[in-house]
Amino acid sequence: MNIDHNSLWGLLLLAGDIWAIINILQSSVSSEKKLIWIIAVVLLPLLGLIVWYTRGPRIGKSLTGTD
Is the pTM of this model over 0.90? Predict the structure, then answer.
């Protein structure tokens, strides 16, 4: 099986996007915000993942009020 570098980067990006979507769904933000974040990650895979990682909702972010 021959996997080139582009395929490897594509698989890593896909794994990162799936991880981001799972974390978005588990966050405590509203359903509308979840939908917007998921659309951003799906339509702009690399940019959406980077922006979500730096600015996106986190699991339990609103539960303590200290984040």
Answer: no
